[in-house]
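Whether sequence alone determines local backbone shape is best considered at the level of individual chains. In the encoding step, the backbone of a single protein was reduced to a row of integers, each denoting a local shape. For completeness, the protein is quoted in full, as a sequence line and a line of structure tokens.
***
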Amino acid sequence: MCWIFVHVLFSISLVRSPNKKIAIACAVLFVAVYVFKPITADLPKYSSYFTTGYIAVHAFEDWNDEIVLDPRDLTGQPFDQAFRQKIWGNIYSGSGFAYFSKMLHATLPKGNLFPRILDRNWYIADFPILAIMVLSLTILIVAAGNLLSSTGIVQFAKKQLIFTVPVIMGSVFYMLGSQSAIRQFLTMSLIFLALSFIRRKHHVSSIIILVVAASIHNWALAFALLSVPIVLILEKLKHSSRSSSRIFFELCVATSGLIAGCLVVICIELLLSPVGSGVARLIGDFQLVSDLKIYVNLDYTHLLGRTSAFFKLLLVGGIVIVSELILGNQKIKEDFDIRSFRLAIFTFSIPLVIYPELFSRFLFFYFAAEMFFVISSFWAAEARVRLASAVIFIAYGIAPNAINVLAGTGWRNIFI
């Protein structure tokens, strides 16, 4: 209930006029939510990895803040194999995350830290998880300052930091990422940091950041190939979007994203069909191609706590439509057109709904873009802009996937 209450409180403040005292109170309450929340999702898996270097597939024991794994899980070299995946030839992804995990293992204390309301006797590597939460929060704040502020990160931090922190911590992206999909979360955070440097024309820094992101998760390349062209195109169209009808411009953006998504689906189908078998063999060593063959056939929506891809699309699409109707022809006075960026990512993802697990990955990336949209809107002078963001932020408070990670899948039994 605290999670929902804070979203409603902050949203009301956002519509009326952003209040620093309310923003600070909401940030404190969000911290309390993360500190006291039960152990859910992938926290046990990452805890065993951060502590031992191995992922516990079988049950393990906790002795004096140390994990005793089943011997069947103690194969190979610690840290070096669990998330290591070949990208192409002798190039591997996951090495960056392995090195980062080794550093956390060597420098941070072991054992539990947070006084969780449930499962207090379970072993969770809270110190590494806390370090990742703080690091990612910092990365996202810097990315927001570079993307959305014309005055630079220092002035952005002085004026907007108090409001940015609760928006990030209350977002679906941060809840799902920091408490479950940690590798994807770090990768996408770095991609948005790289995009912010591209916007500032710091291209060398952005390339370095993208390489680091790719060393954490091999899907970094796919998200970079999607988002970098959109950023560059929107920068080129910045002046034309301001002079033309905003509704017409957004319709063009939405249509372009939808067409691009349809083309990607056609390419996937051709690649995996007998017609494209020759091309598939030619680039079959490329890990993303191998992953595609897996993800297009995966569907975990029948599992407890999982929501069907079409239902996700319906829920998220409803919020997008409502927020766009509220905005209407209103021009947001911002340095980067995050509204169009968010819309392009969403419409691109729509055709991918026929591949439930692939759709979930791109929807997670959309949640990050939407979070930046909310950040960009809460200091807008126009009430309609703030209202659109408030609608999105309230939706975060009742989003089923966020509540799954927050409270566990058992909360759904209330409605059975």
DSSP finds 19 helices and four strands in the chain. The longest strand covers residues 85-88. Residues 2-415 form one domain.
